[in-house]
User: Fold this.
Amino acid sequence: MKNPKRKVSIVGLCDSVMHMVRTLRREYLAQTASDRELLCGEWVRPGGRVFLRVRKEGGRYLLDECWSNTVNSRVQVFTFRLLRDEQDNLYTETQERAIGYDRERDRLLADSLGEFERKKENDEP
Assistant:
């Protein structure tokens, strides 16, 4: 007969190891990564109709603006290259929307859209 307590303790141990690895990765990136690298991931606003996704594809950084609507659950995605100018300011290519990153609070700031927080693993867009 299998011991269910042993399974629970193994799962708990795995969860603890994963949490530790994520924490170490986050701390390492905070010290060594560029703003564009740190922005990679999904960003949400509580109660907002738009969420953002920053990703690296090849050597390019892309920003996806994902808009939901109030009629159905359809999401429209608009993709823009995330560029850096001579003064290291970030902006989207065709829209020229200014993008900022608050390292202290881990917040993405988007011109005319406001402030976004990093999506937690259990959050839904």
